[in-house]
Structure formats: structure tokens, C-alpha cells
Write a structure and sequence with these properties.
Number of helices: 8
Strand content: 25-35%
Structural class: alpha/beta
Number of strands: 15
């Protein structure tokens, strides 16, 4: 039976404050390329790995998120990826199948065949799309915009962290519906991308705006109908002062808070009362039943060129720690992908 060296990215210890590349280490183990007799698991070769902001919370000793356990120090980091099946004890998967779902940050993984392990049916698009526009971030954008916000043509939509994996898609969904869309990002390059690549009506660099409330009043003189929340903190506070009647806020993430030992407070929540507004959080893990409906909408748009998509690609498993840490300083432009193997 063939036994291979399996390179892995391991968390050294729980993290406090801003994560560093040195919090993770590249190591190796050995792995047999055959499942044990009677196993119900799936043995895969990992091809593409996803770097996502929620992974920061899993580096804590007691993660504030209840839907994912913390990473275990000394063990490989886990996250969503695209992989090729080498052996399977589950009848739903066979050797040669391409899948996306939760896997290890390593060259080869043995993973359980859960309901959120998906066989890739459409291979006429890049496989890496299944950890981005056709995977968890895409479904997140779809759920947060369509299902949570119930948008209508002509509404005023604001997206924070708009050039990221989720924001770029939420904004384009809004444009396809005929909304007025403004996005915020953290560099001139990203602002240009929002306006020239993704078709946003306007965009601004929040780092150049000393008064976020004034900035939003400039771009939304009549107020905001829909806010797709990815940032939290001061941005959320400013948005609350600029809501229209019956506004909806879809709370997807709060990346500005993930590395703070003492999270910032929010001071303008009374606006939700005065504006009869609704703010709702959601977990994409509750929404996988919508995946077929989501694919039906988004695949034709991709193939017809109606949706643009940008990836930031890091080559090699050894580049994964830097790629993940870079999310929290805004180093990436677009969806952060790590290529483990292109085979």
C-alpha cells in the first residue's frame, strides 16, 4: 500500500490579538493512500483552499462563534476547499470525483461525508470558483441579499468590505436587480475595482474618510435602504445614522472586531426604532438547502459574463499562513485562494 509524506499547516497555539504567520507552522506526516476497511470517510487530494475571515475566531481558545469549534493546537487547520477523491467509503462519492466542502490545510485529507460535502457537477468553470463565487461566499452573498433583505428595484444599497469574496458578489446582485449601489474598501486599487470591474455606481476608501457619517450622507443623500454588513464597529454606527424608513441590515460579518480583545460598542441602535428598520444576522450553514436555487441563478450569469469575479491566488501550501493573515490587513484583492495542486 502506497504511503506518502503529507505536508500540513498546523496551528502552534491559540492566538490573542492580531494573528501572525508564526502562529502557524508547516510540518508533515505520513498517510496511506487507501482508507481502512469499513471506513465511511472520503480520502481526498486537496487542490484549492479558501482563506476566510471567520477562521480568525477559530484560532481563539473559546471562539465566540457557536457553529464552529476552535482549531486544535498541534493539528492541521481546517477550512473549505476543493479536492479530488482518491478513495471513498461512502457510496455517494467515488474515485475521481471532484468535491468542495470542509477539508484540512494539507496535501491529503481524510474527511467525513457530511451533507455539506458537495460533488462538483459543473466543471466548465474554474474549479477554484467552488470556494468562492460558487461556494460558501457566493451562497452567503445570495442569502444575505435576497433572502434576508428582500430587495426591490431602485433601492439604495451599501456594501462594506465590498471588494472581498462576499461583498463583490452582493453588490453585483444588487446591480443586476436595478439598485443604486455604493461600496467601501481600503485602497484606491480596490475602489477602482468596484467601479470599473464590478459596476458599482460609487465607491470610497474608508481610510480617507475622517467622518464616515458625512461620507455616507454624501453618497446617500436620501439614505440607505439595504446595508450588507461585513465590517461592524464605526462603519455600522455611521450606517445606523443614515437609514431610510423600513431599512434592512444583513449582518454577514464584522471583520473590524475579530482581532480586538475588547470589541467596540455600537451607539446608534435607537435608529432601528425610529426608522422601523430590521437588522438580522445569519449563518450560511443554515442555508445550504438554497444551494440548488442559488446555482440556478448564478451559473448563467457567470457564463454570460454578467457577473465579474476576482481572485487573489497564493501558490503552494507554504503560502497559506501569509495568505490567511493578509485578510486582516486588507492585503488581498478579491477572494483569497491558496493553490495546493492544480492536478
Amino acid at each position: 500500500m502506497t504511503e506518502l509524506t503529507n505536508k500540513q499547516v498546523v496551528l502552534k497555539d491559540y492566538v490573542s490579538g492580531f494573528p501572525k504567520e508564526s502562529d502557524m507552522v508547516l510540518t508533515s506526516s505520513t498517510l496511506k493512500l487507501k482508507l481502512p476497511e469499513g471506513s465511511k470517510d472520503v480520502l481526498v487530494k486537496n487542490l484549492y483552499l479558501s482563506c476566510d475571515p471567520y477562521m480568525r475566531d477559530r484560532m481563539n481558545n473559546t471562539g465566540s462563534l457557536s457553529y464552529f469549534e476552535s482549531f486544535k493546537p498541534g493539528s492541521p487547520i481546517t477550512g473549505r476547499g476543493v479536492a479530488k477523491v482518491l478513495d471513498s467509503g461512502d457510496p455517494n462519492f467515488k474515485e475521481g470525483d471532484l468535491i468542495w466542502g470542509m477539508t484540512g490545510w494539507e496535501e491529503y485529507s481524510i474527511i467525513p461525508a457530511t451533507p455539506t460535502l458537495f460533488k462538483i457537477q459543473h466543471t466548465d468553470v474554474p474549479l477554484s470558483y467552488y470556494i468562492g463565487i460558487l461556494g460558501m461566499p457566493g451562497l452567503t452573498a445570495y442569502t444575505g441579499f435576497y433572502e434576508i433583505c428582500s430587495p426591490k428595484k431602485g433601492e439604495y444599497v451599501f456594501i462594506s468590505a465590498a471588494s472581498g469574496a462576499v461583498g463583490q458578489l452582493a453588490g453585483q446582485f444588487a446591480k443586476l436587480l436595478g439598485c443604486y449601489v455604493v461600496g467601501s474598501a481600503g485602497s484606491k486599487e480596490k475602489v477602482d475595482l468596484l467601479k470599473n470591474k464590478f459596476g458599482f455606481d460609487e465607491a470610497f476608501n474608508y481610510k480617507e474618510e475622517p467622518d464616515l457619517n458625512a461620507a455616507l450622507k454624501r453618497y446617500f443623500p436620501e439614505g440607505i435602504d439595504i446595508y450588507f454588513e461585513n465590517v461592524g464597529g464605526k462603519m455600522l454606527d455611521a450606517v445606523l445614522l443614515n437609514l431610510r424608513d423600513r431599512a434592512r441590515i444583513s449582518v454577514c460579518g464584522m471583520i473590524s472586531q475579530y482581532n480586538l480583545q475588547q470589541p467596540e460598542g455600537v451607539h446608534n441602535l435607537t435608529s432601528l426604532i425610529f426608522k422601523r428598520a430590521r437588522m438580522e444576522g445569519f449563518l450560511v450553514s443554515d442555508c445550504y438547502h438554497l444551494y440548488p436555487k442559488f446555482l440556478e441563478l448564478v451559473l448563467p450569469h457567470i457564463k454570460e459574463g454578467k457577473i465579474a469575479y476576482v481572485e487573489d491566488v497564493a501558490e503552494g501550501l507554504e503560502s497559506a499562513p501569509a495568505a490567511l493573515v493578509g485578510l486582516f490587513s486588507g492585503r488581498n484583492v478579491g477572494k483569497q485562494v491558496v493553490v495546493v495542486s492544480r492536478e
